[in-house]
Design brief:
Structural class: mainly alpha
Family: Belongs to the major facilitator superfamily. Organophosphate:Pi antiporter (OPA) (TC 2.A.1.4) family.
CATH class: Mainly Alpha
Organism: Arcella intermedia
CATH architecture: Up-down Bundle
Number of strands: 0
CATH topology: Growth Hormone, Chain: A
InterPro entries: MFS, MFS_dom, MFS_Na/Anion_cotransporter, MFS_trans_sf, Sugar_P_transporter, Sugar_transporter_CS
Number of domains: 1
Largest sheet: none
Main location: membrane
Subcellular location: Cell membrane
Length: 430
């Protein structure tokens, strides 16, 4: 039940985030926004999102992930409902999107802290892949439903609907969720059995510890962790650009209408969901059956999720006279193969630390939010000054992905690392 609620909550966070990405087409047309202005508005969410990443990791450890995640989603939902009322003022609309990002910024650090405590080591890849790919389902729902709602009602309706769903979910989460398996102090309507709690605790790599003695020096000088951060950054560069600009690309560059653009843009994310979850499942099988070590498995899946998208993006940028069908097929292949990294760098957080997973994820996600600010805005700027030359956008994403593959292959590790003076290092058995 906890896993289902958690998954639905993550899906909702991305539905809230993506609502504007489809609405920006009719809103931008009505208000005469150029691509640069649209890029500023689309990226503004991440201006707030980056600010609360590291504080979110710290707060998840200090106050518990239940309250943090619930209130983060609730706050973002409430502001999403308010956004249509500010459309007459670009500045106020921008500010509200920044505040929405502030609320959502604490959610993923809370999620990673939660799963580091609730799931045994033999399920790490699977649960991380399922959780990490949940945003993709949010994009599918937002891109699929939003055009139909806009065309049949009004564009404001998507903000009211998505925000209302988020508030209802927040109430259920705060009533049902619990912070830690052995925590008897939280008020909750749902609690696992004694046997379930014992199984979880018996299969954690380190004992539960709520102290906070992490060394910033070790964080900044651990190559394996820095490799995760760069790969996280690279993945998000392409992910945020496509999530923000794909509907616009399909409508304006490939001449699809709004309904078709929304429906077609769902397809790669459905494929991403399948690839991401399957990757985690097969990675866990390879590890638990001692076919490969954790480190080797992480590198295999990371290489698949970085080199294949790079190849497809280069093809998309360099092959001449591509038909619309071929263009869509190559682009969707690039997107669909990227989630192999869910069993790579995304799962690697849980390999190198348990006690500080939420905090280390929050630091990485703060860096990986920069593409949401810079990349989304830069895409709009490039399109404006280059007469809509998407090849520059694609080649830049391909280059970052290729470099990420090299860095991860050289530096990634698969065992617990020492990030403070007290944490006991337990070597993996495989």
């Amino acid at each position: 039940m906890l896993g289902v609620l958690l998954y639905v909550g993550i899906v909702i966070t991305y539905i809230l985030r993506m609502a504007l990405n489809v609405a920006v087409i009719p809103v931008g047309d009505a208000l005469k926004w150029d691509d640069t202005a649209r890029g500023v508005m689309l990226s503004s969410f991440y201006w707030g999102y980056i600010v609360t990443q590291v504080p979110g990791g710290w707060m998840a450890k200090k106050y518990g992930p239940k309250i943090l995640f619930g209130w983060g989603v609730g706050w973002a939902s409430f502001l999403t409902i308010l956004w249509p009322f500010t459309r007459s003022s670009f500045g106020i609309s921008l500010f509200l999107r920044i505040l929405t990002g502030l609320g959502e910024g604490v959610t993923f650090p809370a999620v990673y802290h939660l799963i580091s405590q609730w799931y045994p080591k033999m399920e790490k890849s699977t649960i991380t892949s399922v959780i990490s790919i949940a945003p993709t389902l949010g994009i599918v729902i937002a891109n699929g439903l939003s055009p139909a709602i806009i065309n049949n009602l009004r564009w404001e309706s998507i903000f009211f609907l998505y925000g209302g769903v988020g508030i209802v979910w927040s109430v259920f989460w705060l009533l049902l969720a619990i912070d830690y398996p052995s925590d008897n102090s939280s008020i909750s309507l749902m609690r696992p059995s004694t046997e379930e709690i014992q199984f979880i605790l018996d299969n954690q790599e380190i004992e539960e510890d709520h102290s906070s003695n992490i060394s910033i020096y070790k964080i900044l000088t651990t190559p394996a962790y820095l490799a995760i951060i760069f790969n996280h950054f690279s993945y998000n560069w392409a992910y945020y650009i496509f999530a923000s600009w794909l509907p616009t690309y399909l409508k304006k560059q490939l001449q699809f209408d709004l309904d078709s653009a929304g429906a077609i843009s769902m397809l790669p994310y459905l494929l991403m969901t399948v690839v991401g979850i399957s990757s985690g499942y097969f990675a866990d099988k390879l590890i638990t059956r001692n076919i490969f070590s954790v480190q080797v498995v992480r590198k295999i899946f990371q290489l698949l999720g970085t080199l294949l998208p790079s190849m497809f993006l280069v093809l998309l940028s360099t092959l001449p006279n591509l038909s619309v069908t071929t263009t869509v097929a190559i682009m969707f292949s690039a997107l669909a193969t990227a989630p192999f990294t869910m069993a790579g760098h995304s799962s690697n957080f849980l390999d190198i630390t348990n006690k500080y997973c939420g905090l280390l994820y929050s630091i990485s996600n703060a860096v990986a939010t920069i593409p949401g600010i810079v990349g989304v805005y830069l895409t709009g700027y490039i399109l404006n000054v280059s007469n809509n030359n998407w090849n520059i956008v694609f080649l830049l994403a391909a280059s970052l992905s290729f470099l990420a593959a090299i860095i991860f292959t050289i530096f990634a590790k698969g065992e617990l690392l020492d990030f403070d003076d007290d944490e006991k290092i337990i070597k993996p058995t495989n």
